[in-house]
Amino acid sequence: MEVFRPYGFDKILFATTLILIGIGLVMVFSSSGVLASEKYQQPFHFLIHQLIGVAVGLVMILLILPIRKPVYQNPLFIYGLLLISLLFLASCLFMPALGNTNRWIYLQGLRFQPSELSKISMILFLSLYLERKKDRLNDFRTLLFPLSILFVFILLIIKEPDYGTAFLLLVICSIILFIGGVKLRHFLILGIVSSVLFLFYLLQADYRINRIFAFISPTTDPQGNGFQIIQSKMAVGSGGLFGVSIGESIQKLYFLPCAHTDYIYAIVGEEFGLVGTMAILLLFTIFFWRGLVISLKAPNLFSQMAAAGLTMAVFFQALLNVSIVLGLGPPTGVPLPLISFGRSSLICTLLSIGILLHISQRKGHMRRKK
Prior knowledge:
two-stranded antiparallel sheet; 4 strands; 12 helices; mainly alpha
């Protein structure tokens, strides 16, 4: 039994989300104004599109919160979302390439990145499957179906190519499998197969290997493969303790590629200094804490795993992005959730948060002893 408390959602998580969105809007405009003016003759171009993503995402949250029955727990919804994600990912391979990648589908002039939706669909699918099969998880044959689905998703995402998202999806799903009760011995097979898959595609393109060498020693090719890493570190380092002040970044003036997307955290470091970067890390840490609290208090195993998975998807992606910006990992093209420009990422992240907030309204009901 459970108790549903309409609009009794986790206020700290919601407030943290709104603060991160606000910071994101400010930084998107600050980091993209010059580029938008020259490319589109409109300095607010990227900000307007980001605002559209915010509006769509917040409306979804408002629509999800009052629903008593958790639609996201319905098997028809979960398998339908999984099928849609799979079809969208496959369709990407036949869409026009953008920047030598096939990560987007185009519908009526709109562009959407299905790999963002695939994280939500896989988290919900695994949560449902593991709850239903919890008594037979020691049999590896029980795991063949979900692992096959996982590797199909990973393979399609790698083919786009999008190594960062594929790796993130593998990590998140592995943790959900562990939380669900899968024995450690099964992870040996999962690790071997995934390592072979990632290594095989890593060796298929020279630029991927060059990125790894650039990460290890960026100064070897400062004007080539190591340029982005060096410029990112310069942006963060030049901000000092309090930054050069908002809008005064130098690196965003075409010195640092992808300043408003993958490397927006570097611009935060330049304009707001160590104080700004640490504040963002603190906010994501609060987000992680509240997400885990929601998971621990969730009324059933499905909700516990789903809440944990959705929380980790946002938090680990943030850590991965920050690590790349600071030169602690090779570039992968993973945005900073809620802050980087990108409507697909923003809308799907807010959808995940909407589900998290809905779970926080559902409490396990314990009868009082007489």
